[in-house]
Every structure is written in C-alpha cells, then in structure tokens.
Write a structure and sequence with these properties.
Layout: H1 3-13, H2 24-40, H3 44-57, H4 62-74, H5 78-91, H6 96-110, H7 119-133, H8 141-153, H9 157-170, H10 175-187, H11 191-202, H12 212-228, H13 232-243, H14 252-266
C-alpha cells in the first residue's frame, strides 16, 4: 500500500479531537454588548436575562454587575438596582458606574416620604458614592449637579459652591445651578458669588426679574464686604449697582451714605 494512503487512513480513523471549551470571558462580553442592544430596542427583560447569564459566567466582573444596576435603575426597580450596585462595589469598591448608580437611586428614594426615617443616612451615602464617582476630576454634569444639591441640603455650602463652579465651567448660565449658587453663597457670606448668581438670573426674563430684590440685597452686602477689605472703589461700585436695581430691598438713604463714604475714601 502506498505510504500516502496509509497517512490518509491514519488521519481518517484517528480519535476525534475534543473541541476547546468556550471562553467564558469572551461569551460574557458578547452578552454584555447584547444586553445594551436589547435595552435600546426596548427589550428590557431580555437585556436583564443576558446580563444575568454574563454574571453566571464571570461572577467577579464588577462592570457587569454595575451595568445590571443601571438597567434596574432606569426601570425604577430601586431595590434590585441597589443590590446589583452593591455587588459591584463589593468586588471593586471604586467602580465609578456602580457608585454613581447607587448614589442616584438612594438620593431618589430619600426623597420619598415613606422613607423619611432613613433619608438622612441615604443622603450621606449618596454623597459618599458621588464623591467616589467624581474623583480624578471626572466631568459628569448630572452627578455634579446632584452632589451640589446634596451638599447644600446638608449644610455643606462651601463644598456646594466648589462643585457648582466646576459645573458652571462646563455649562455656563444653567439656571438651576445659578439658583443653587445664589442660595449657598448667601449662607456662607460669599456675596461676590451671590451677587453674580442673582445678576445672571435677573437677566433671564420675567421669571428671573423676580430675583431683583435678592440681587440688590446681595450687592449691598458685597459693598459692605469690599469696604471692610478697604477695596473702596469696588465697594462704591457695588453700592451703585444696588441703587440702580430694586430699591425695596434696603434703606436707600443709608446705602447712599455708605456709597458716598466709599467714594470719598477711594479718592484719597
């Protein structure tokens, strides 16, 4: 028998080679991507099922748990979202998406009167998770605005102002952020920030003009602050701006007297 036929026969009749087992990481990644497509198509139960199969394949993949938490959050399934996010954080404590989702869900639940007794703790948790999610100077405007609100709500007004300034650097003139800035600035005597916030809001049309008394009051306070710092020209200018605005917010004659004194000292 020719040697070639012997080789062919050996190949044909050898024991079949066992197929390599599927790669669980690759399959989980495929399911992760598939879940996003399914959710985009409105097939949420199928998306959740795909993520659960992915977790079964790679249970220590924090990103998949975090993705599942996000799907539950978008569906309003708070308890399941919290459980999935906490599972992700147990694996990877600084996972950004899991901390972000957990913060938003807990902040929303804290606003429900049914959870009033535990609201303070949930808000504190939300702040902590947002601080993790926004570490390393991450720009996430929704998260930044929520963190600023929670800081203000818990009396941490300096932190609120710092966060709002970062937000406004990316989104100048955003009305909700300016309102928050004005409120927080007043609480800690940051009258330059308060006057700036109310002045921008006043320029936003009829609804903004309702804040003219607060703008004028902040300008008077700013004039006094500049006067104490011996910035007499700036003081006089702030008083002038107040006098050009809503005069119902202060004693006109008194502010005119302080303005004139600042002008006098500025001229020396």
């Amino acid at each position: 028998m020719p040697a070639a036929l012997v080789l062919v026969g050996a190949i044909l009749f050898q024991a079949p080679v066992a197929a390599e087992p599927p790669d669980p990481v690759g399959e989980a990644y495929f399911l992760f991507l598939q879940s996003r497509r399914l959710e985009d198509d409105g097939k949420v139960p199928e998306a959740i099922a795909a993520l659960r199969r992915a977790i079964a394949l790679v249970p220590k993949a924090a990103e998949i748990h975090a993705e599942l938490a996000g799907v539950f959050a978008r569906e309003g399934r708070a308890a399941e979202s919290v459980a999935a996010a906490e599972a992700a954080i147990a694996i990877e404590p600084r996972n950004r998406e899991a901390n972000r989702t957990l913060a938003f869900v807990k902040a929303a639940v804290a606003g429900d009167p049914a959870y009033a007794s535990s609201a303070a703790g949930m808000i504190a948790d939300s702040i902590r998770h947002l601080e993790v999610a926004l570490s390393d100077s991450v720009v996430d405007l929704s998260a930044q605005l929520l963190l600023a609100k929670l800081y203000s709500q818990t009396g941490q007004h300096e932190k609120a102002l710092s966060t709002i300034r970062s937000f406004l650097n990316e989104q100048p003139g955003y009305p909700e952020a300016l309102l928050l800035m004005g409120e927080s600035a007043e609480k800690v005597d940051r009258w330059e920030d308060a006057a700036d916030a109310w002045s921008q809001i006043v320029e936003m049309g009829p609804r903004g003009r309702a804040y003219r008394p607060r703008q004028a009051a902040a300008l008077v306070k700013l004039g006094d602050q500049y006067f104490q710092l011996k910035r007499y020209k700036d003081s006089a200018d702030a008083f002038d701006r107040a006098l050009a605005g809503d005069r119902t917010a202060f004693d006109v004659a008194d502010v005119q007297r302080r303005r004139d004194r600042a002008r006098e000292l500025a001229g020396k």
